[in-house]
Structure formats: structure tokens, C-alpha cells
Amino acid sequence: MSKSVFISHAVKDRELAAEVVTLIEEGIGVPESEIFCSSLQGYGIPTGQNFITYIKAQLLEPKVVVLLLTPAYFESKFCISELGAAWIKSHAIFPILVPPLQYSDVKDVLLGTQVIKIEDDIGYNDLLATLREQIACTEKSQTKWDTKRRAFLKAIEPLLAKVEGPTHVTAADHAKLAGELSEARAELDTSEEEIRKLKKQLAETEALKDRAAVATVQASFADQDSEDDVSGAFNALTDEIKEYRSMLKGAAVMTFVLSDYYNQPYTIEWHSDKAEFEAAARFKYIDLEDGERVNWSNKTMKSLKSKLAELEEFMFEHGRELAKSEGSSPLDPTAQDFWEYHYDL
Q1: CATH of the domain at 124
Q2: Cβ within 8 Å of residue 22, ≥6 positions away
Q3: Per residue in 136-169, pLDDT tens?
């Protein structure tokens, strides 16, 4: 006989699946005996049972199939078979999308199906309603549900950082990349030909001029070009980081985020900045439920963190050139004066 809830997941994602099971059992009240999760002891295949036969039996009449959609899921033949069985039998499904996958990756038999992202706090209320409607659950209070849901979202943060991207490339993507590679090679060949001509022209020019004078001019331009290139790259990078100020809903939240990243002290001025911080919380950039903290697992915050790390690496490599080209402007990215000068905070 099929259990009521079937957790369809890849073996690589067993830790995420375990957190989903905990949420369903302890937060919603679905009995342990009604949950099937093949990779978890006590929820999986009993000793002595045939793996394939037992899973086929569990897919006959579950009330709900929870799909944990990750890159590993779509690369697993077993998972695709489970998805196909759920589709053919028209079982109720609850798809959970895990980054780095995006909505555009939901294709084929799932195309047009409403899915939630795994960090979508509110979306799990639909799972609560579906399971309590379909299954006789142990009574749980709203407070218990809210507490377990928040605990689930915190528990999955380190696990999401370990989710690997797809290892297979589709034929369409391969063809596209092959075309781009061909174009890049053609442009490179053209550039190489132009460089060869310029080198020849330069050599002939040098033969007509005083060699010492030519060397002096070349050296002066080389130094200036190097400093200009470094300064331009630095300003472009800080301008990119400055753009996150509007994304994060204001200067106060941006300062709070930078303070968190660089381990600097910061106290929120609630009387003046409350609306700004609450807006950032609604976008999941920060969490205000249990103290104030940055939600670095959010896609936008991951992008900002990557830019800040890129800035640190850039300044480590080009600190001396920057000191010459930037003059008296602040060059310590961990300090408030740097944020004010370069990010307009």
C-alpha cells in the first residue's frame, strides 16, 4: 500500500530531503508512517524488499508527491521515472525548486505547473493546506508551524550552498556554445591579424626615429595606460556595487549589509529606517524574525557578496597602482569613509 506522502528526490540531495521530511512531520503533523523518503532510514525501503518493486508500489496511490527539483534531480533516471509516474497517474504534486535552478528550467511535463522556490516562506502554507486536507494529521498549532517553518529555512541555508549545478549540457546549449566559440575564434583571428600589422608598422616607425626618444615615449605611455586601466576597472567595480543600494531599498540597509560583511558594528535606527528595513525583509534580503541578519542565501545577496569579494581581490592585486591613480580618495573597503565616498552612503 502506498504511503500518503512520497518525497521524490535525488540521492545527492538527501540532506535537503531530510529537512523537508522534518518540516512535514513536526510542523504539519503528518505521521511518520505516512511519509516515504527512500534515502532516509525509517522512511525508506524495509530490509529484504526489492528497491525498484517497493518504489513502484509507493507510487501507485500517494495523496501528494513532493518533488525536490535540483540539477541532480533532472540528471537522475530514477527521479525522471518518478516524475513521469506521478504525471501519468495524475497524482497531486508539490514541486519545490532549488537554486541554482530558476523558473525557466521548469520544462517538459512540468511546464505551466506552479512551483515554489525552496526559500519561499509563504509558499509552504500551500503545502500545509494540501497535506491537512488530504491526510489525517496530528493537530499542530499555528505557532508550532511558524516556528518549524522558520527553523527549516535556517537549516537549509548551508545545504543550498552545497547544491551543485548541472553536469550535463543539452544539445541546444551545446550548439549555442559551439556557435559562440566559433564567433570568438573568428574575432580572435581578426584581432591577431590587426596586431601583426600594427607590430610591423611600429617596427618600421621605430627605425625612422631616435631609438632612445622612442623608448622614453613608449615607457611613459605604458605607465599611464596601466594606471588608467586599473583606475577605470576599480571605478567600474565600485559603481556596480553602488547599484545595489537601490536594490536593497536604501542607504541604511546597504550600510547594514556592508557592516555585516566586514564584521563592523551597526545599530538600526528604527524610528527613521523602519520602512526601509521592512521592505528589504519582504524581498528576503534580510531577516528580521529572530534578530537582524543578512540573508546571504538570497540570489541578490549572493551576487553582492561575489562583487565585494571581487573588489577585495582586485585591491589586493592592484593596491599600489590605485594609491597612485586615486590620490587622496579612501581605499579601505571595510571603512565607512570608503562607503560614503564610493557608494554615496
Answers
A1: 3.40.50.10140
A2: 148, 152, 155
A3: 899 889 999 999 999 999 999 999 988 887 766 5
